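Both lines are given unchanged directly below:

***
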Amino acid sequence: MTFTICPKCGNDTSVLLSGVCRECFFQNFALAQLPQVIQARICASCGARFTRGRWTDEDNIGTIVLKTIEDNLSIHEAAEDVEVCINPRQLTPHMYKVEVEVVAAIQGERVTSDLSSEIRIIRESCEMCSRMSGGYFEGILQIRATERIPTENEIEACLRIVDMTIDRMRAKGDRLAFITDTIRSKEGLDLYIGSVNSGRHICKAIIEELGGTFSESPSLFGQKDGKEVYRITFSMRLPRFTPGDIITIGNRKIVVKHMEKKLTGTDLTDSSRFIATEDDIALAKHVGHVRDAVNAVLVSEEEHELMILDPFTFRTVNIKKPAGFSLMEDEEIPVIRIEDALFLLPPEWRKSDT
């Protein structure tokens, strides 16, 4: 074995670490460092933790204690194959004692460091909760329906979409994604929204599921840091017609499937797909809904016609057989009467909750 002289202490050594012997290297070496007392700032209302200059949502106090230690634990840059074991112990509702063991390789040498710290929980109010309690909002979302009153089912669907969108925005870090106030009226729904960004996402999510359109209207609210501050009013308009509505466009009877700027549906005469433009929609007239359908008995089936027992007059009538028509044995079929004519309900509506 070859020995050399340590330039610091003059002793013989077989291994040099950073140019000195092992004893000299580890004499003032600290594998890890941890403050003896650490303050953890936690929101008393929502449980968020303040770290690196911002509030972040956390699952529970145990996670907060562990992350607080991880944020404050310093490990030597030369350490390799690092293993950290954190053992927290609650002393009071506002204080934790934490034992930390750090094991790592330093230039081939296995080194262990035992540390301890005291976590003191400081409860305060985060920016989001402070603003919510103060009634803060950046936008107003007004949900209405075109030329009609929104149904209760539509209002409930909108509220469900709002909750889902807010949760998704919060998960992405938008802590101003909250609703300060919800006001129901005969005309619809008014929502006071903490974040303009979440307001836009809510409108888009409602359109994706229920159809409709929205517009934005800014209004000057004040100034902050020398810049003008605006509040945005989102005017959300649910469609004039809803899925399941039956309308007339010209001589055609259409069951509405979806509506935004254009309308898609099914022609009751032959079950063909129908797309209406904005000009077509302007001339459309509401004449019924699929929920108005009643069951009828199929008397006979020909190649191009069906003979049905009219449930309103109890007389047999012939109607055009839709393409791809099929029926289970002894099954009744839903029909609807519009302007003294009988129509077979399209297949996609026969088993739906009308």
Summary: The domain at 31-126 is CATH 2.60.40 (Immunoglobulin-like).
